[in-house]
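B., you asked whether I could sanity-check this one before it goes into the benchmark set. Here's the sequence:
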Amino acid sequence: MMTTVKMDGLEYRLKRSNRKSMEISIERDGAVMVKTPYQIELNEIEKFISEKNVWIHQKLAKKKAINRERPKREFVNGQGFLYLGKSYRLKFFDNAGIKSGKLPKAEPLRLWRGYFELAESEKANAREHFISWYKKQIKKQLKTRMPRYDKRIGVRVKNIRILNLGHRWASCGRNGIINFNWRSVMAPIWVFDYILVHEMIHLVERAHSDRFWRLVSRVMPDYKEHASWLNENGADLDL
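And here's what the prediction gave me:
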């Protein structure tokens, strides 16, 4: 259960669950998330937030600065779009011959010879084509990346869904299903792997407990570097 609470001018999202400890995080959209056990009283939560007040505002200021510097992408020739941490310029191609049936049918968007190529007639639907393309790439990447970790973690992912998860990079259900944000494949492959490992370990340990982070560290010893990159650069992974 999640509610929105205001305290001394600070608005935060409060999520209660079966977890054992309290945790504060700054989400990708700049929201303050406070996770607590069900039984914790509101005055204890407010005391915890007060103790973290300086840290919270430092993180919010940093997030605001990052978002302010985020470049605005437009679907025009020469604009750069990210894939696995690299930027590729967009260029349009004339698909009149394809539409008339004189040339073989081609995908409306492709990554070809260092460029994203988009059919001229599909400019109005450019964002939808990019999202569709990113979703396909995630499925391809997961097919090769998942076998690197499943036996080491000791889990079997039953299904993957590619969704728009807003400020979350991924999530997992109790039924062995992992949900991936379509934006995640814009990140470098080592960061993409961190998102995958993070959620696979949630199939073993639901909460962000000490045990959870020990398991992450066992599979990915430098995970803090990956998480830090995502926190600092995540706002740029969008269209």
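One thing to flag: DSSP finds eight helices and eleven strands in the chain. Otherwise nothing jumped out at me.
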